[in-house]
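Query structure, 334 tokens:
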């Protein structure tokens, strides 16, 4: 039989299961529930109290999820986080490796461009290989430790990602416009990881080329001194997108997390860019020298590049926050 409460119950059980088994398990649960209702009510039409009794006998959605989940095991990170943990870990690892390789390749190009002899080329090559190997080992280890610690914290502190302990708290099946795209969350996590890796290992990547010379946009020494702000900035973004990935829909939890994360990120950006030594002073001089009086607008942008950059960052966070709040309030999820 088709019933909203039954459909919400089945959705709560199956939504975190692997995609390939969701339909089979949904059909199996519907058949099982129909049989139990038939046994209880006979030829009579089941009432809501009958449905609640049958669903209560089956157990909570969390209990059934653990029963059907092929990855369920007692470990450092258990259900319902383990499958999402593996998923996020894979994304972070791929992005970390990609970011490290990209950063080291571009950094190597800078070094090779300064080599004017075979001895220097050999030395630069050896340095490149050693740096790449060391950075990969350290970064992969840190990424693994961070993701594992984050999900272990969620699991052992019993931070609930779903409120499905009873029938009244079951979420409604989300409509298409209420769902959060997994691809968007994955891309956002990837950007945060690559941003962190590149800024910590090769901030000289962000540069302009003028007169055959690489001019870094940022002051490299100041970047290294403010590494902890960059780490906090990236971690906040990753946590926000992990919550979105786990929830899979616009909900109150996503709204609150996004507000806290985006406001925190904006404050961190202000803290970071408030340091007048962050931007390489040569960049403004070099860029403004390219424009004459007819290019006063562009000249003003580059002479105030730090404030311009901060304005773009804050605008992006505020826009994302407003869009998320609007979609969460518009959603039927309470």
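Result returned for the query:
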């Amino acid at each position: 039989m088709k019933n909203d409460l039954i459909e919400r119950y089945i959705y709560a059980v199956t939504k975190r299961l692997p995609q390939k088994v969701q339909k089979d398990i949904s059909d199996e649960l519907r058949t099982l529930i129909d049989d139990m209702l038939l046994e209880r009510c006979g030829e009579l039409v089941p009432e809501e109290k009958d449905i609640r009794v049958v669903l209560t006998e089956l157990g909570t959605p969390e209990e059934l999820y653990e029963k059907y989940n092929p990855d369920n095991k007692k470990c450092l990170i258990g259900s319902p986080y383990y499958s999402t943990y593996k998923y996020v870990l894979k994304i972070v690892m791929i992005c970390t490796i990609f970011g490290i390789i990209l950063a080291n390749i571009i950094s190597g190009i800078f070094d090779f461009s300064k080599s004017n002899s075979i001895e220097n080329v050999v030395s630069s090559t050896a340095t490149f290989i050693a740096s790449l190997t060391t950075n990969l080992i350290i970064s992969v280890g840190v990424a693994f430790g961070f993701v594992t610690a984050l999900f272990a914290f969620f699991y052992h502190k019993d931070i609930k990602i779903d409120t499905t302990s009873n029938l009244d708290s079951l979420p409604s099946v989300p409509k298409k416009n209420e769902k959060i795209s997994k691809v968007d969350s994955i891309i956002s996590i990837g950007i945060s990881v690559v941003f962190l890796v590149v800024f910590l290992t090769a901030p000289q990547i962000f540069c302009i080329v003028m007169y055959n010379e690489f001019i870094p946009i940022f002051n490299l020494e100041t970047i290294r001194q403010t590494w902890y702000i960059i780490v906090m900035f990236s971690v906040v973004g990753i946590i926000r997108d992990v919550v979105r990935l786990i929830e899979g829909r616009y909900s109150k939890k996503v709204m609150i997390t996004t507000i806290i994360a985006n406001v925190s990120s904006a404050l961190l950006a202000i803290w970071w860019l408030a340091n007048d030594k962050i931007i390489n002073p040569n960049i403004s001089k070099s860029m403004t020298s390219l424009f004459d009086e007819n290019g006063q607008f562009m000249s003003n942008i580059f002479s105030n590049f730090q404030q311009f950059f901060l304005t773009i960052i804050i605008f992006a966070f505020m826009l994302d926050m407003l869009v998320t709040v609007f979609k969460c309030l518009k959603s039927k999820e309470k």
